[in-house]
Design a protein that fits this description.
Blueprint: E1 2-6, H1 10-21, E2 25-29, H2 33-40, H3 51-60, E3 64-67, H4 70-76, E4 79-82, H5 97-109, E5 114-118, H6 126-141, E6 147-151, H7 161-166, E7 171-174, H8 179-192, E8 202-205, H9 207-238, H10 242-250, H11 271-284, H12 290-302, H13 305-314, E9 322-326, H14 341-351, E10 355-359, H15 364-374, H16 377-380, E11 383-385, H17 389-393, E12 398-401, H18 413-419, E13 424-427, H19 434-440, E14 443-445
Parallel strand pairs: 1-2, 1-4, 2-3, 4-5, 5-6, 7-8, 9-10, 9-12, 10-11, 12-13, 13-14
Bound molecules: uridine-5'-diphosphate-xylopyranose.
Residues 154-158, 218, 221, 225, 259-261, 263, 266-268, 270-271, 330-331 line the site of uridine-5'-diphosphate-xylopyranose.
EC number: 1.1.1.22
Catalytic activity: UDP-alpha-D-glucose + 2 NAD(+) + H2O = UDP-alpha-D-glucuronate + 2 NADH + 3 H(+)
Binding site for NAD(+): 30, 35, 86, 121, 158, 273, 338
Amino acid sequence: MKITIIGTGYVGLVTGACLAELGNDVFCLDLDAQKVALLNSGGIPIHEPGLEEVVARNRAAGRMTFSTDVEAAANHGAMQFIAVGTPPDEDGSADLQYVLAAARGIGKYMTDFKVIVDKSTVPVGTAEKVRAAIQGELDARGVAATFSVASNPEFLKEGAAVEDFMRPDRIVIGVDATPDGERARELLKSLYAPFNRNHERTYWMDVRSAEFTKYAANAMLATRISFMNELANLADKVGVDIEAVRHGIGSDPRIGHSFLYAGCGYGGSCFPKDVQALERTARGHGQELLILRAVEAVNDRQKQVLGGKVVTRFGEDLTGRHFAVWGLAFKPNTDDMREASARVLLADLLKRGATVAVYDPVAMAEARRVLQLDLTPEQLAKVRFADSPLDALTDADALAIVTEWKAFRSPDFAQIKARLKQAVIFDGRNLFEPAVMAETGIEYHGIGRSILTRA
Ligand code: UDX
């Protein structure tokens, strides 16, 4: 099938590459000429395991084209996927300017029936705005072509996006109950048929419910994390091990084991933005989402928990202190630092006069970029970008772990002890067992694990 993907960001590129891998003829449109040039020369603008190989293979096979040509894009695909960014507005609602510009681009040039598929995370009612934008262009040109707008939100996790796309646990598609909506359903059904061979994974619904489903999923997951983080903070006060509690409750199938890990807060491009946008939608309809307001507030506070533990241990004034920080990305297997907890910790330590040495397996270049935005030049001068985890430790008063990279999970504790000035670890992701740490002689501060570190 001929597919057009508008937007070669994270979602668009993964979707385009995976649809090409299934044998489709995929045209990727992006208005950023530099990015298109990079993609056409075999480069990849993001770090995502497996993506580079899939793109290279399908480019070589002629199934993936990258271009800035809006007209060619509109003419290529019978299905036009909109996968552009929806950054938060000043008030937290999703900014739809790129989505609507993409829609107008389609309307300006389309000549025959098209299915427009909203892949971007967009608030309820966006499909109607997309429809109006396209119709407006068609009317202006006096063209009578028909089209249908469907909603097909993505549930990809960064770091596992190719795998998630290729082995989806569900495919959510919203289509209109109209003859054109029926045509959209048939086209999407055959596009996704390879995923439904063994059992049906597609959930068909109306467009608004599909749009809402994406927000509901992310809000629910963010809620679980903030809930566990709040319990973990209490666990620290009352001498309870949150990890034991996690096992104890997760074994109840109504609760389940996933997404119950207490830590130093969630980040990334989705949870913070989507929770805010859903709250904003509710407010626009005169409803206050009290739970989500708390989810957000708890997360903001949780990002400060590691800094708080450092202060409790070393005092408010950290002048003359030096800390090693392992992990900068908001989670492992990505270089994405959007809303990353490490940014909050670093700002806090530096503000209090400390110096730091940081290390991340892939996010070092991205860290240099974002820390320039977060910090003053004087603060930035106090950050050393280390060459390895061990290198970061040299002469540090303590080690803080912010991202649960596999490479940090089984370190040589004797080496850590030897390199640190003081054998202290603040573990924002509960990577180690406090009982094991006690044997190493390293002072260990996890999240919600105080029962084992109090004695
Ligand atoms: C999320 C959703 O999982 C995905 O379905 C959606 O399409 C986009 O948003 P992503 O942002 O890539 O994906 O990351 P995810 O793996 O969900 O983790 C988000 C954040 O939550 C990370 O900062 C992670 O460290 C944190 N987290 C996750 C916890 O603190 N505890 C947990 O138990 C799980």
